[in-house]
Amino acid sequence: MIYEIRTYDLKPRSQPEVEKRFGEAYEKRQRLSAPAAFWHTDIGPLDQLVHVWPYLGLAQRDRVQVEAEKAKVWPPDIGEFVVRMRSDIMIPFPCSPELKPGKMGPCFEMCTYTYVSGHLPTIMRVWEAALPGRLKLGPLCGIWYSELGGNLYNFIHIWGYPTLDERNGILDQARASGIWPPSSKAGDGGAYTLLAQENKIMAPASFSPLQ
Fold first, then answer.
1. Residue from 156, 151, 138 nearest 198 by CA
2. What is the pTM of this model?
3. For residues 151-182, b (16+ Cβ closer than 10 Å) or e, as one string?
4. In the structure, what pLDDT confidence band is assigned to residue 19 with cuts at 50, 70 and 90?
5. CATH number at residue 26
6. Is 210 part of a structural domain of the chain?
7. Which of 63, 81, 83, 99 could bond to 9 as cystine, CB 3.0-4.6 Å?
8. Which residues, other chains included, contact 175 with Cβ-Cβ below 8 Å and sequence gap of 6+?
C-alpha cells in the first residue's frame, strides 16, 4: 500500500470555489479509485488543499491517472486558482493503521518531520514502541515516510480530534506523563536526529470519506 498526498497552494480566498469544483467532479473520479481524505487547511500554511489517495502500488496509480485524464473526469478545471502543486508518495510505517473512511475529526493535525539520512529505521523502532501509550489518548490516522516527491527524508503523522481544545488537552497530558512525543535520545530503540518539524491543522471537505 502507498499513499499519494497531493497538496495544492491556492490564490487567497479561492479555496471555497476550488473545493466546490473538486466536489462536483468527485463522484466520477471515485469510480476509478476512491480517495482516503480531502482536507483544507485552517491553521498553518493557509489556502491549501490536501488530498490523500491510497493505491496498491505505483502501477495502479499510473493506470488510474491515465484513465481519469482519458475520461476527462479529473482533475477539475481549477488552473486559474492554483499557485503551486506538489505530489508526494508515502509508505506506511509497519505500525501505521490503514487510512479508512469514518469519523475521526473534524479537527485533523498533520505533522511533518525531517530526519537525518539513515535514521529512519531507528525512528520506526522508537515510535512503534511509544505508540500504544499515545493511542490510549486518541486515534492515529496514519504515520508514513516519504519515498518519492520533493520532500525526501520526511515522515508525517496525522491525528484526528473532536475539537482544537481537545487536541491541546491531549498533547498537554501526553507531555506531562512522558508518553509522547517519543524520545530522540539514546535508549532501548537508539538515538535519532530531527532537523525540522512543522504542523498544520486541517478540516475535511463535505465529500471527504474521512470526517
1. 156
2. 0.92
3. bebbbbbbbbbeeeeebeebbeebeeeebbbb
4. very high
5. 3.30.70.100
6. no
7. 83
8. 181
